[in-house]
Amino acid sequence: MLTFLTGVTLTIHLIVDLALYLCIAFSLWNIARTNHLSFAWIAFVPFLQYAIIGTLCEEYILWGVRIRPLSLILVGLNFLQFFLSLISGFFLLNILLNLLMVLILHKFFYLFHPERAMFYAALSMLGEIPLAIFLFLLRDKPIQMSAAAYPYPFPNRK
Prior knowledge:
It is a single chain. Helix content is 63%, strand content 4%. The chain is mostly helical. It has a two-stranded antiparallel ribbon. A hairpin with a 2-residue loop joins strand 1 (60-62) and strand 2. The model has no long low-confidence stretch (mean pLDDT 86).
């Protein structure tokens, strides 16, 4: 009986993960097409799909430090988070990487919906379910402003 329940739980988990992956992939694909990115197909490649978010955000400035190229940084950040989740003992580092990801997601959501960007970014910390929902909501919406017009939450240190 225990083996049966384990198999059912694993099957349900795999179905939910596949549904979330497909929702995120199709949403990012549609966002890339709507905003005229030539490599929209990359949305269907795990880890690389975050390059679409990085390309639209262009760069991130954190306390005066310019983080570029954001597309490569996001792909590496996503891969590193996945890798660290498989290894125990890196909980604090994983939280810090998640916070950096949320800051970048805030900029991404701000480009589409400035009034709800904080809400979307904060809830995206809870996992892929809210992220999939928010990307699905934005899938047909063009960017509302230039990435350079983003008001960074932390002031530049001089």
